[in-house]
Amino acid sequence: MKRHKFPLAGLCFTILVIVMLASTALATSPKESVLYRFEGGSDGATPSASLVEDSAHNLYGTTTSGGTSNLGTVFEVSPPGTAWTETVLYSFAGGNDGANPYGNLIFDKAGNLYGTTISGGASANCTGGCGTVFELSPPATQGAAWTETVLYTFSGQSDGANPYAGLIMDSKGNLYGTTQTGGGVSCGATTCGTVFELAPAAAEGDSWSETVIHAFGKFSDGSHPMAGLTFGLHGAIFGTTPTGNDKALAGIVFKLKPPATQGGSWTEGVLYRFTGGSDGGGPNAALVVDKTGNLYGTTFAGGTGFGTVFEIAFGTWTETVIYNFTGGSDGASPAAAMLRDQAGNLYGTATSGGTNNNGSAFELSPPAAQGDPWTETTLYDFAGGHDGSLPQAGLTFGKGGQLYGTTSLGGGPKVGTVFRITH
């Protein structure tokens, strides 16, 4: 039998090409690593918020349950060492200090953390309390306890109740947020919710002062905001509501224009009303603003039935769906705010869908030519085991451009994870 001879040099070159292609694929394929798996005890459980990173690359977040009273925590996850380490900075007791934080945290320049709790606080007008805004201050000495201070307790009346979202802060230290209910305007069995401003105390020992800058439901302008707010051009604030009165049953995008004079009123305008059809419906997340003022967001439903990513063009405020989720490997039902990098790529999570219906992390890349479709890439498809499932929170850029996030379920005990995606 005649044997074919292959040149050794050609064979070596072929092997080298295969190895290089494999190495390139490994280098460019996103990789997920679980940094911490919650146990559901004193360490916390079911994180639902995105993370925030400090200058030392420590990550901070909240869990809605777990902790010493099973009413939620504020935690820190610190880089290795040999392994990432979780430390509970504060466990909520459910009294005046608040309970069940759901939203993300923010830092001020001094390293203090600010956040909200859905319930707890001093008011008896809501079952379990109407919620709080709190500050968590770092200790003067390494290893000592952080100090929690309640800046405001919601009464459940015209001032609002049940803040689900995190806060934003302006250059003067004023905090802005939303409450899902309260505000004094009826939306059936509940009140419609608010946008509020919390101003720092004028002197040490004084109280922070809360002002409702908009109460929903007065002008068919949406209701029950779940999402946080976003600063835009010229001091404007943008946000979403997942539902609404009258024609805005599928939610809205709104704009709040700051007062022209000191002590004046903010002016609210509805930029877009979702129909719940091909344009999307039920926006639950905060918006992203680009440098020209265009807005980007997600809807939990609508589109082809599995949610959308949309763009609202600045000035004309016309809505364009830039991606329809299919409910397959790309994911379904996005509920969190997205990130935008300098190249205009968007990064986010979907709560369900994926190969195992446990959610996904995705990237959306803008088209090379205007009018062409955006390109969706699934960065990670959650399996629902030790890697986590149900990512309700958005992603955070960390060291080296890596992406960090949380899942509300999965991990070993199935009560959530902190993860990293290297891409």
Poorly predicted runs of 5 or more residues: 1-27
Measured between the Cα atoms of the first and last residue, the distance is 51 Å
The biggest beta sheet is recorded as:
4 strands, antiparallel
Shape: globular
| CATH architecture designation | 6 Propeller
Average pLDDT over all residues: 91
Q: Taking strands numbered 1, 2, ... along the chain, how are they ordered across the largest sheet?
A: 1-30-29-28
Structural domain tally: 1
How much strand? 25-35%
> Could you please say which CATH topology applies here?
Neuraminidase
Assigned CATH class: Mainly Beta
Number of helices: 1
Cα-atom Rg, whole angstroms? 23 Å
Report helical residue fraction.
under 10%
List keywords for this structure.
single chain; 423 residues; mainly beta; 4-stranded antiparallel sheet
